[in-house]
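Late entry, written up from scratch paper. The run itself happened at the end of the previous shift, but nothing got recorded in the book at the time, so transcribing now.
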Amino acid sequence: MGEPATLDEVRAWPALVSLAQAARALGIGTTTAYRLHRRAEFPVPVLRVAGRRRVRTADLIRYLEADGGTA
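Output as recorded:
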């Protein structure tokens, strides 16, 4: 899994990121992220863009700020 991304790092990301990158911001593994997405339990909305799962960075930032910067 590696180190979770800091809120400052997330703020510097592009507007849309992969589900795996969003998982890093939330401090969870990729497998867990995909499992949560399949169950419709991922904590922020997941979009389908050109057949790929993407997450809005703004949604991640809002979630992390509301959670005190930790997932």
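DSSP finds four helices and three strands in the chain.
(Scratch paper discarded after transcription.)
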